[in-house]
Write a structure and sequence with these properties.
Layout (H helix, E strand, L loop, with lengths): L5 E4 H11 L4 E4 L6 H8 L5 E4 L3 H15 L3 E5 L3 H4 L2 H9 L4 E7 L21 H5 L5 E4 L6 H13 L6 E6 H4 L2 E4 L13 H17 L3 E5 L2 H4 L3 H11 L3 E3 L14 E4 L6 H9 L2 E5 L5 H4 L3 H5 L3 E6 L13 E4 L2 H8 L8 H17 L14 H11 L3 E6 L3 H9 L7 E4 L9 H9 L6 E7 H4 L6 H6 L4 E7 L4 H10 L16 H7 L3 E5 L2 H10 L7 E6 L9 E2 L8 E2 L11
Parallel strand pairs: 2-3, 2-4, 4-5, 5-7, 6-7, 9-10, 9-12, 10-11, 12-13, 13-14, 15-16, 15-17, 17-18, 18-20, 19-20
Antiparallel strand pairs: 1-8, 21-22
């Protein structure tokens, strides 16, 4: 054996590397081809193995944890159906730039088919690597046990540098117990870097444009939190005195109480925030890709004749849909390190005039007057009341659907509170497992999950995981007994034919289901009952479910009117063309 090398096995070295990276939690659903890895993980004194009830849930849990603890997440699955069940979670991490290491077990190396005409050789054999390559930063099957150490180190580095994202390593079962030699691994890797002169030039043009403009805005995207730059971003905003509109993924970039917080923009954005964009004469886009959910269909109107400056780590996202006046391809960490030292800001007198106008828009279009039900609870009011009252919540999580938009419109973020949701993938079923993952970051912390009846049913089996670990997760179910977002779409474009959203769809009594798992639960039918429940459970510990009844036919408004000018919103202006839900 060469000097400086030690013997290990693939599985034991895997655990050692996780320990060295201070990984405390691993999520999986046990299966035959990962039993060796899982057995080794259970021997660790520092790593907790959390067995979920579906591989998709394991993937979302790893994502939820990674998004709040600043490290990479880890999820395991067996071969075949176990591996394919990870795919939605892998895609979620890819689109939302979350670093997660996915490990899949594979059949023994001698069972793998090398004949392209042979569909399968080993039981549950599956070429997962080929399937996930388009939605990972790196994916590889181990073909020699002695390459595992270098591949593992490379995968971790790729996941956690540049624009972060998921990686996958597929390991044949016989290789997992193979003895290997561990030596010094060359970790050199080129990471794109932008020199300070380009940042300085960008800031000089930005400063000049700020001097000449009257109504500037920052568009804050999910890239800020993904880069762990929220604190530095808030310093930048305070120093440069530029008001902020937030995307769905950037909801927690600035506290709602900040006088520079404008609100949520986009397809279902606050009416005043979209109006502010329409009236602005300068946009500084930070960590947002300006997709159709932000700009609507009228990209030309969104661009207008205003100056648009964009900072993004991914060059492919720059000028993809909206042409910028000036762009900077670099990480937000690099940019803010230089920009926070630069001496420029927006004129204080012009700022006060602009803020006064924005405040008048907010007062003109109250967030809780857009979706007023004829019966049941007003969802916007409910979300505002809960988030204002439950200050002990460290992280809010939202599943996907109508409630996701109500959360974005009305959630009151304060201090260092986080808000997690599935953006690019938009995966129903994300919420409960992601909340579970986030809860493991700090077991004393309280997580509040907003979820619809449709989304909850996709991973409802994780009630057992929630109860078994006695996690401080409060589920607020906005229960309208329908797939509400699609039903609203059907109302607009299909003359109210509600196939598979109302007709052919049903949901159980979630309070009863939760009670069957031993979870504290309550049904809420009115604003008064909600207010009493908020007070009753303010200091509650352990899992909790509030099932809030929402009117079935209640729509999410305001909503950008597709085919119309940017800023025109339903229900006052009707869409003239069909869009995605």
């Amino acid at each position: 054996m060469a000097s400086g090398q030690v013997k290990s096995t693939v599985s034991s070295h895997f655990v050692e590397v996780l320990e060295q990276n201070e990984i405390k939690h691993v999520f999986e659903l046990i299966g035959g081809m990962i039993t060796i890895l899982v057995d080794e993980l259970h021997k660790s004194d520092t790593i907790q193995v959390h067995s979920m009830h579906h591989e998709q849930a394991a993937a979302f849990a790893a994502e939820g944890l990674a998004r709040v603890d600043g490290k990479f997440g880890v999820a395991l699955a067996t071969s075949g159906p176990g591996a394919t069940n990870l795919i939605t979670g892998i895609g979620s991490c890819f689109f939302d730039s979350v670093p997660v290491l996915f490990i899949t077990g594979q059949v023994n190396s001698y069972e793998i088919s090398n004949n392209p005409d042979l569909r399968q050789s080993g039981f549950q054999e599956m070429d997962i690597v080929s399937m996930v390559k388009p939605i990972t930063k790196f994916a590889k099957r181990i073909t020699d046990p002695n390459e595992f150490s270098a591949v593992l180190m490379k995968a971790i580095k790729i996941a956690t540098t540049g624009r972060k994202g998921p990686v996958l390593i597929d390991i044949p079962m016989d290789y997992q117990q193979a003895e290997i030699q561990i030596g010094t691994v060359n970790q050199s890797s080129k990471v794109a870097s932008t020199n300070d002169s380009k940042v300085i030039e960008f800031n000089q043009q930005l400063a000049s444009a700020l001097d000449q403009c009257m109504r500037p805005l920052i568009i804050a995207g999910g890239g800020i939190a993904a880069a762990t730059q929220t604190s530095n971003f808030r310093d930048f905003v305070a120093a440069k005195r530029i008001p902020v509109v937030k995307t769905l993924m950037g909801i927690d970039s600035l506290p709602n109480a900040s006088k520079l917080n404008v609100g949520f923009l986009g397809s279902y954005g606050n009416r005043w925030a979209n109006q502010a964009i329409a009236e602005s004469d300068l946009l500084l886009v930070m960590g947002s890709r300006l997709d159709i959910r932000q700009t609507g269909s009228d990209v030309t109107g969104f661009k207008g004749d205003r100056n648009i400056f964009q900072v993004d780590i991914d060059s492919a996202e720059i000028d993809y849909r909206v042409q910028t006046t000036k762009s900077l391809n670099c990480s937000l960490a690099e940019y803010l390190a230089v920009a926070n030292k630069a001496q420029f800001n927006f004129n204080a007198q012009k700022l006060e005039t602009w803020l006064d106008h924005l405040t008048s828009l907010k007062h003109k279009y109250p967030h809780d007057s857009e979706n007023i039900p004829t019966q049941g609870v007003n969802p916007n009011s409910a979300i505002e009341k809960i988030s204002r009252a439950w200050q002990e919540v460290g992280t809010f999580v939202s599943d996907v659907g109508q409630h996701q938009m109500w959360v974005a419109q009305s959630l009151q973020i304060s201090g260092d509170q986080r808000c997690l949701t599935s953006g690019g993938m938009g995966a129903m079923g994300f919420g409960l497992p992601a909340a579970i993952g986030a809860a493991f970051n700090n077991l004393g912390n309280t997580i509040c999950l907003f979820v619809g009846d449709g989304g909850l049913q996709l991973n409802i089996q994780e009630f057992e995981t929630l109860k078994r670990n006695n996690l401080n997760v409060r589920l607020v179910v906005l229960d309208n007994q329908t797939h509400g977002m699609v039903r609203q779409f059907q109302e607009t474009y299909f003359q109210g034919r509600y196939g598979s959203t109302v007709e052919g769809y049903s949901a159980p009594n979630f309070a009863s289901v939760a009670a069957a798992y031993g979870i504290e639960s309550i049904e809420i039918y009115s604003d008064q009952e909600l207010e009493l429940a908020i007070i009753k459970y303010e200091n509650f510990k352990g899992p909790l479910l509030l099932n809030i009844r929402i009117e079935t036919l209640l729509n999410v408004y305001p909503k950008l009117a597709f085919g119309q000018n940017f800023g025109d919103m339903e229900p006052q202006v009707k869409s003239s063309e069909m869009e995605g839900t």
